[in-house]
Design a protein that fits this description.
The complex is a heterodimer. By secondary structure, chain A is mainly α. Chain A has 20 helices and 2 strands. In chain B, helix 3 runs parallel beside helix 14. The chains are: A mainly alpha, B mainly alpha.
Chain lengths: 504, 519
């Protein structure tokens, strides 16, 4: 029972701070502060510089991450509550780059829509800060703080289109569900703290691993925490908020939700399961198995029936969460399998970010002209916007898993991880992933079919003007999608990330 | 030169079409003539590389992989960029290199609606990369990548340039093949994990290397082997396509544009049969022996079922599509015998079927261009209205039904013969029953093909088509595209050893693995 007693006995000892390890967070804090200050001082005059400043701030934050990566030392702060290891660095970089693409998507949307702009980027920076923090959090309290920091701003950003009922609904639903999930997580955490007497994941791992047999309170704690984060990653049956929220929220926010927020959920799950609950695979393996199978099957089947493209992508996101959960389900088999599954999920997250952000960029660009989210409005896109149509095809078939586009490698490593389990527990997941990618192929190919093989529904074939920021976002995501597919070794090396306290 | 070819020949053969496609992508759509020229030059250059490879190829040891390239690719999963050419790959690679430029020439003056030669030709070039890559890859993951690369261009070729029901046919084709290859991938990964490791630079590791897998896979228990073979069977069997997975084929063939049908028939179907001979059988010979009676049964069902369907067809293109099901049944029967003889015949059957059925689809396409219909009832008198084309159709029909002296014969007759004496471990009685049924199939084949020829070419043209100025005889691009194929059908028919010499040593190695497992 360290903690308060410890301080009372010895007085407060200032922990030694490793400033280099904290540099990314501190840099980004400064960026957020500058954005807010500009709003306070210059008011509306600062408006037009906001997206550029936010984008530059994000890129500057990558610098300390790069120096930390070059330095290569693993750093442990505050007795293990905050850790900088390869895994943390890779995920931080992924969050920041995804965030940069989201800024590119937001630039025109927010500026043209007569929305509050300064606050938008301030909130956005706060949320991203939570995600960056999440990647280093190895302590229940840190994880919870990161979770709230990343979630709260998004509740507001989801209802940014304040005159639209749908958008208000989106924010409200997400808020209620999110708060509920947070409560569930918190309850699970309190149980785990009660059992282990520590909030550090490593201590919890040692404590719950040392107990023999099934202990109800541990089971409850683990299940509650995983279920809480299952809301965040929108796994079935905790996905019901996702379609409505995705549809109602502004498209850039949807992209942010679908990619960065979901990634943050997975980062938390990875840390909790691999470090905190690792030896409790009797609890989490069956739970994740069910969540994975249900998410991919139900997500894909419902996606087949969608007529709105954003809703379709919401369900496709549910299915993809299922694929990643499938890899997570087998981590407990052995440390080798666990390492394999870890790098599979990291690989999937990286490629997932590229192709989904890209798809949302196209959706956003097309909606600028058609003002519609209906799938039928994609008819004949190739005839009047060939570039967008080809880009969309690249993202769609990457999502389907057709080589040489990134998605195939993501699916491959997930299937590989599940097969490496070597029992029917893993094989069944592998076969489910394989069969599900075929189901998914139908609705992805359907959009390709509309774009290339149908006429424009209203006969309106005026070309689409794509603003510079969107072109940049599309270029980044197309290149990332293709390169990860042709040279998967690159992302594979990144994904072999070491997670401290797991597997050495 | 030799050294350059050793290191770069195969890589160039695979990726040169992609370079051509990339150049074309940068040129505006309106420069149609330029697009056609670039596409033709690219495919001819690929063909030239093929010729150089043939010149440098050591036919004395065609059982060994030559021009081997082995580079790091995805270290994390120990998948490598391994290419190699041997007697099994050679004929199929050459077939691809021949058919694609002929398709470009054939399309020269009449691109199907909605025209757009740029997109059409780019897709064909991407297709060529996928096809050649599949035949040369010697690493399972690399193989899988190329195997899948062909899906997209074909999907768009059928879906955009196809007939009435093109969208349905395109998605059906896409989903069927994707389903098979998804399970095939699971099988590949199971092979990877269950097989023994081999020595690599970083120590012993599991491998996707097809050269090492026959040995590495011996460690796998027979139950697991059967499951793994089952997954590959689905992947390759759907692609072939074997009965009962064939239903995508008639739709895809009927709806695809002419050139799409030709490539589909000539090369794409062979990816499946090639997979059996290259991957499934040598790596898992024990499982192959268990599966062979079942595969043989499906093969003969395919032969008879395909033939009966042909007899019932009213559309010329659909009839030819079903005849593919029957012909691929012969090929699969040859493979199912697991003998040297049977598999050699199967590879010959693949090449012959590629040339002959490709030819039939070419003629069907030209007929459609002139008559705007392929309904057999309305056609007739082709020999009167376009005599040269009528004779060419007659020639291809004869070749297809297996007339001795033409290529088709050597794809069917030896297969039937080989079923008399299947590999050790297989039931002779059963395969002799298959043999009899397959022989009956050839009679049916003669029936439906001659009947087709009689109804379309004999007699006098119906009133709606007499003196129709649109119905012209064979045009120049058609001559250029068809002449090499017709010549090859004759040459291979007279001197089949051209192919057998190449394939025999390589196939011998596969059949030895089977024989070792059967003992």
């Amino acid at each position: 029972m360290q903690g308060i007693d410890h301080f009372l006995d010895e007085g407060f000892i200032r922990p030694t701070l490793d400033w280099h390890a904290l540099a990314p967070e501190l840099t980004f804090l400064a960026v957020g502060a500058i954005l807010t200050l500009i709003d306070v001082i210059w008011l509306e005059k600062g408006r037009k510089y906001m997206p550029a400043l936010a984008g530059i701030g994000l890129l500057i934050t990558l610098v300390p991450i790069l120096t930390l990566a070059i330095d290569g030392n693993e750093r442990v702060l505050w007795d293990g509550a905050f850790v900088v290891d390869e895994f943390a660095l890779v995920m931080k970089a992924l969050f920041l780059i995804s965030g940069y693409v989201v800024v590119l998507l937001s630039a025109n949307y927010i500026a043209e829509g007569d929305y509050w702009e300064n606050e938008y980027y301030g909130l956005f920076a706060a949320s991203l800060m939570g995600m960056v923090l999440m990647a280093s959090a190895r302590d229940l309290v840190t994880i919870f703080i990161a979770l709230e920091l990343l979630s709260l701003p998004i509740y507001m950003m989801a209802s940014w289109r304040k005159r639209s009922l749908e958008s208000n609904e989106a924010g409200m639903k997400y808020f209620l569900m999110g708060v509920f999930a947070s409560a569930v997580v918190l309850y699970g955490m309190s149980l785990l703290y009660g059992v282990s007497g520590s909030t550090k994941l490593e201590d919890i791992g040692a404590a719950v691993g040392a107990m023999d047999g099934s202990i109800p309170i541990v089971t409850l704690g683990v299940v509650f925490v995983i279920v809480g984060f299952a809301f965040k990653v929108s796994a079935v049956p905790f996905h019901v908020w996702a379609p409505d929220t995705y549809q109602g929220a502004p498209t850039p926010v949807t992209a942010f939700l679908a990619v960065a927020s979901k990634t943050a959920g997975f980062v938390a799950l990875i840390q909790l399961i691999l470090v905190g609950f690792y030896d409790r695979s009797d609890v989490y393996a069956p739970l994740l198995w069910v969540l994975a199978i249900a998410s991919m099957t139900i997500g894909n089947l419902i996606a087949l029936r969608q007529t709105n493209i954003v809703r379709m992508f919401a369900y496709s996101g549910v299915a993809q969460a299922g694929y990643m959960l499938a890899a997570l389900a087998v981590v407990g088999t052995s440390p080798e399998v666990g390492q394999q599954a870890l790098s599979a999920v990291v690989t999937y997250l990286i490629i997932y970010a590229a192709m989904n952000l890209g798809a949302f960029a196209v959706i956003h660009a097309v909606a600028r002209k058609t003002r519609s989210g209906e799938i039928s409005s994609y008819g004949g896109l190739f005839t009047y916007a060939p570039g967008l149509a080809v880009a969309m095809v690249i993202f769609l078939f990457s999502l389907t898993g057709i080589p040489p586009l990134g998605g195939w490698y993501a699916k491959l490593v997930v299937v590989q991880a599940t097969v490496s389990d070597g029992t029917w527990f893993g094989y069944s997941l592998a076969i489910a992933v394989a069969v599900n990618s075929v189901i998914a192929a139908f609705y992805y190919a359907n959009i390709a079919r509309l774009m290339f093989m149908s006429e424009a529904p209203d006969g309106d074939t005026t070309p689409i003007r794509v603003p510079f920021a969107l072109t940049a976002a599309l270029t980044i995501t197309v290149i990332a999608t293709v390169v990860t597919g042709v040279l998967p070794g690159l992302v594979g090396t990144l994904a072999e990330a070491n997670l401290i306290a797991f597997g050495g | 030169m030799t050294e350059f070819l050793e290191d770069w020949g195969l890589t160039l053969a695979i990726f040169l079409p992609l370079v051509g496609a990339a150049i074309m992508a940068l040129i505006p759509k309106a420069e149609e003539q330029l697009h056609k020229t670039i596409a033709l030059l690219t495919t001819l250059a690929v063909g030239a590389i093929g010729v150089l490879l043939v010149v440098e190829f050591d036919f004395g040891s065609s059982g060994d992989l030559q021009f081997v390239v082995d580079h790091r690719w995805i270290d994390v999963i120990n998948s490598r960029y391994i290419l190699g050419l041997d007697g099994i790959s050679m004929p199929l690679m050459l077939l691809t290199m021949l058919v694609v430029p002929l398709c470009v020439i054939y399309s020269w003056n009449h691109f199907p609606e909605p025209h757009n030669p740029k997109a059409f030709l780019i897709l064909i070039l991407i297709l060529q990369t996928g096809m050649i890559g599949t035949f040369l890859a010697q690493d399972l993951i690399l193989f899988f990548v190329f195997f899948e690369v062909v899906l997209l261009p074909m999907y768009f070729l059928i879906g955009v340039w196809g007939g009435e029901d093109r969208q349905y046919a395109a998605i059906k084709f896409f989903l069927y093949t994707l389903f098979g290859s998804a399970l095939m991938l699971v099988s590949f990964l199971a092979l990877f994990f269950l097989g023994d490791g081999t020595a690599t630079a970083a120590g012993v590791a599991n491998t996707f290397d097809m050269r090492a897998l026959p040995e590495a896979a011996q460690a796998i228990g027979i139950t697991a082997q059967l499951w793994i073979f089952g997954g590959m069977f689905l992947g390759f069997g759907i692609k072939v396509p074997m009965f009962p997975f064939h239903t995508w084929l008639p739709d895809a063939h009927t709806q695809a544009p002419t050139v799409g049908s030709v490539i589909l028939a000539a090369v794409l179907l062979k990816l499946g049969t090639y997979g059996f001979i290259r991957i499934a059988i040598p790596i898992l010979p024990e499982a192959a022996i268990e599966w062979a009676p079942f595969i043989g049964a499906l093969a003969v069902i395919g032969i008879i079922y395909g033939a009966l369907c042909c007899l019932a067809q009213t559309d010329m293109k659909r009839l030819i599509a079903f005849s593919s099901v029957a012909h691929m049944g012969f090929t699969m029967l040859g493979i199912a015998t697991l003998t040297d003889f049977g598999m050699n015949a199967a590879i010959f059957g693949m090449v012959a079927h590629g040339l002959i059925t490709g030819m039939l689809f070419f003629v069907a396409g030209s007929v459609k261009d002139r008559y705007h219909t392929l309904e057999i009832k309305r056609l007739g008198g082709l020999l009167v209205s376009a005599p040269k084309m009528g004779w060419i159709l007659g020639f291809s029909v004869m070749a297809s039904l297996g007339l001795p002296g033409l290529a088709g014969f050597w794809g069917e007759f030896p297969v039937i013969l080989s079923a008399y004496n299947p590999a050790a471990g297989l039931s002779e009685e059963l395969f002799r029953v298959y043999m009899v049924i397959a022989a009956l199939g050839t009679v049916l084949a003669a029936g439906y093909l001659l009947w087709l020829y009689q109804r379309t070419s004999f007699g006098t043209p119906s009133e709606e088509f007499t003196d129709n100025p649109e119905i012209t005889d064979v045009q120049l691009p058609e001559w250029i595209a068809w002449a090499p194929m017709l010549a090859l059908i004759l040459i291979l028919g007279v001197y089949p050893n051209l192919v057998f010499e190449m394939t025999d040593p390589a196939v011998g190695m596969v059949s030895e693995l089977v024989a070792a497992a059967g003992r």
